[in-house]
Amino acid sequence: MRAEELWDEYKSQHPDAPDTYEAWAFGDTPHMANDLLHSVLSGHKTATCCNYELAKLQEEKLAEVGQLNILLDGQGCARAIIQTTHVEVVPFKEVREEFALLEGEGITSLEDWQRSHQEFFTREWEAAGGRFNTNMMVFCETFKIVYRAKGNGQS
Q1: pTM of the predicted structure, to 2 decimals
Q2: Which pLDDT tens digit goes with each residue over 29-52?
Q3: What is the DSSP letter of 82?
């Protein structure tokens, strides 16, 4: 399903919803997008984060509390709508274990989160000509599913 179709479906049931939305996929590969989307749809992933400094450099629009976003799978199909419930910006080294565990992804400890995210952020920074360090700022977002595409168990 295209993002526009999912949004029209949602708006028909929630006429007070805003007219604009952002549509995006998790990760940096189709495989990662599908894995992380599955984690969201199964309820294991209720948070995400990004390299705040890189996002600002690339002029990315970051989520705000209450914002609705369409999640895409690795093939660009709209699968769900999430709503941001909390945001904060903290240094990488100060991300709390409570947040790390909300990211799902099979993470069982803060150390697991740090290891996997350091790898991801290093790859991201290097592609942009930067360098990872533990003082870099991280944009942390928690969210909830507010709508699922048909076939994903409507909410």
Answers
A1: 0.88
A2: 999 999 999 999 999 999 999 999
A3: E
